User: Fold this.
Amino acid sequence: MTGVPIEHGLLLATLLFSLGLLGVLVRRNIIFVLMSMEIMFNAVGLAFITGGSRWMQADGQIMFMLVLTLAAAEVAVGLALVLQLYKRFKTLDLDVLSKLKG
Assistant:
């Protein structure tokens, strides 16, 4: 049985990363920005898994576990920021962050 070609996996990872980057650059809501960053993390993880399967190594899966750990930490910190921003400014618009200057 043949697997998915490496070109298809990397093309999908590139497409997902570009979609996430576009979401980070275009959206003004912090929740959508955090979701776009999660898409970017998953795209990087897919690229690691695709590369690891190409060379028959488990390194790609190990790196994906590290990416998942980083994404979980990003969600925890991001959620804390979202809660504090909403508590203080009653909005989730990223333009409000300019008011946080000391």
Notes: The chain is about 75% helix and 0% strand. The helical segments are 6-26, 30-54, 59-89.
